Structures are given as structure tokens and as C-alpha cells.
Amino acid sequence: MYGRDLAQVYDLVHKARGKDYRIEAEAVAAAARRHRPDASRLLDVACGTGGHLCHFAELFDHVEGLELSEPMAAAARAALPGTPVHPGDMRDFRLDARFSVVTCMFGSIGYMESLTELRRALVMFARHLEPGGVAVVDPWWFDETFLDGHVSADVVTVDGVTVSRVSHSARRGRVSHMDVHVVVAEPGTGAHHFVDRHDISLFSREEYEDAFRAAGFQVEYLPGQPSGRGLFVGVLT
User: Fold this and answer.
1) For the chain, which domains are there?
2) CA end-to-end span of the chain
3) What angle do CA 134, 139, 180 make, to 5 degrees?
4) Which tens digits make up the pLDDT trace of 7-62?
5) Model's pTM, two decimal places?
6) Among the four 11, 77, 183, 203, which has the fewest Cβ within 10 Å?
7) What is the DSSP string of 176-227?
8) Nearest to 45 by CA among 151, 132, 128, 162
């Protein structure tokens, strides 16, 4: 999952598909500052290649990242020299710091395999927040909103590199199984193909909200933007 091949083309594909990391980062910052206007320190959990983190760095005085995939973390460090990007799993990490805001974007929270793991991750978020701090989470699709059999396809060309990405998602119980086929073609090296497979849990909105409360948060759900899946905003009590 999220190996070197994918890390090399991840941002290229998503930006070309129209993903606006800046707009999403601004929406998250605004949601957090409704509850914590003086928020200055942010931790982005599952920060990936730093697509959101580089914009959070312009919106907060101090930012750090946490990422499980080393190739993705390496890409984030290259994009943000001097910004700490820690190796770590959201279910169990310990940083010697507290933050005003903890974020988790791009549906990454859905990689928790059970309600127990979901609650454990949110407890980790709470432990790394200052009193009254805010956790903002972009969830994966809910059990009740997931489109079984969804197919997505894109072909993009940037700086002479052409990438074809085709994904298929199917329900397996309460898990969305997604196969992502990627072909990368470059004039000097030819074309190569790889497949990434992802199993992402389909929690319900109520299960997310219960997990936030169990971790010590007051929680609200903001539907729709920025990702289409909405945002959960938890305020540590």
C-alpha cells in the first residue's frame, strides 16, 4: 500500500484530476478556527506526500506530519524541507509535542480495520492535542453512501510523463475493496504498469460520531465540502 511507484505519481494524478489541496486546507483551517481562533500548531496525520501539509504550513505558525508509508513520507520531506515528518501509525504513535489542531485527510481514517481501531486512532489524536484542541477528519465514504461497483478513470500528461489510472471499488461486507491500475509512460524509459489494492472500512456516520465522543470530543459533522465526503470536527473537552 502506497509504495514507491505510487508515491512518484500520486500528486501528479490528483492535481491533474482537479484536486485543489489549497482550497481543502483553507476549509479545514476555517473549520478548526471556528472553535479555536488562536490555533497555531497543526499535526497532519497520514500526511502522504505533503499535498495538504504544504498549504497548512502557510496557514499555521508550526506544522508537522505523520505518515506510515516511508516512500510517501520521503516525498513529503522533500517537498517541505525543515518540516518534521514523523514515521508512524495513527493507531499508536507518541510525539513529544502537543498541537492546537490534528488533521487527517483524504479518507485515510478509513484504513482503520474495526471500530476498536477507529477509537484507538481518535484517542491518539486527543493525546496530542492541547486542552480545547480540535481534530478535523475527512472520512471515507459512509456505509450508507458508498457506491458499490464505482469505476474511476483518468489519463493525464504532465512534463512529458503520461499516467493512466483506472480504479474499481466493490463492497465486501462493510469494507470497500479498491483495485487501482496505473500505467506510467515516459519517452526515455517506456511504459510500466502496477496495481495498488486498498481495503477501506465503511463506517457509518453514527459510528464515527460515537468514536469521537468515546475519545473525549464534542463532535459535529459538516456535510459536503471540501472532499464531497464532509468533515468531522471534534473539540477536545
Assistant:
1) 4-142+203-236 (3.40.50.150), 151-201 (2.20.130.10)
2) 35
3) 140
4) 667 666 766 666 789 999 999 999 999 999 999 999 999 999 999 999 999 999 99
5) 0.92
6) 183
7) EEEEEEEEEEETTTEEEEEEEEEEEE---HHHHHHHHHHTTEEEEEE-STTT
8) 128
